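Posting for a labmate who doesn't have an account.
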Amino acid sequence: MTRFLIIVPEVAAPPGLIGEALLELGHAYDAIYPRDRFASHAPLAYPGMPATPGDYRGLIVMGGPMSANDIEDFPFLAETMALIRAFDADQRPVLGVCLGAQIIAKALGGEVFPMGRLEAGYVAMQTTEHAEGDPVFAGLSGGFQAFHTHYEAVRNIAGATVLASGGASAVQAFRSGKKTYGLQFHPEVTLDIARDWVRKFGEAFCQDEPRLITDLDRDFGSYFAGSSRLCRVLVKNWVALA
């Protein structure tokens, strides 16, 4: 059985549909929650972050409320960046979601910068011409709706290929090398996860984007089926690189 490693910086931002898709495809995954010092494969004795890829066939890094620039406040960020570089150097696939994409960008010498406002809720995305021949975005070219919650974006990642743009950021999805991917949006999110973000972070989020309260249920009713299909296609294509 193929096993993947998922880093979860925020307990309220679990793998969600990404984890479900891995299991549906017959794969397994271990999850490490570095801030909570918990690992699914060693629940009673936290082993810390691995220094090497080990037997894992690929790495996924989920989202969280901190900035990828906050390395002094969150030491696991530097550890995650080192692990990303190790997987990338070993030609094992890497996937980053929101903060995870920003950690990838930072690990590979790119820039993570504040956009000046929150981008949140479902936002229209458009694939670039490079997505048509990309193995992970195969069959997904064109427009799609994706869920967002982020104040920061990425740029200046040397050699990276932009695969999708839209909304407040020119780089909403990118590939570095052959197997390392960053998604600024949240393909994994469900309505329950989004409601939990409103519960936990709503005082900040909803002041900047009231649609998270006023339109949340309606938007999920309109877009969730499509974004769920998108997530499963992305995961299926990504694990094929392993």
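Reply:
Got it, the structure tokens are right above this. The CA atoms of residues 92 and 198 lie 35 Å apart.
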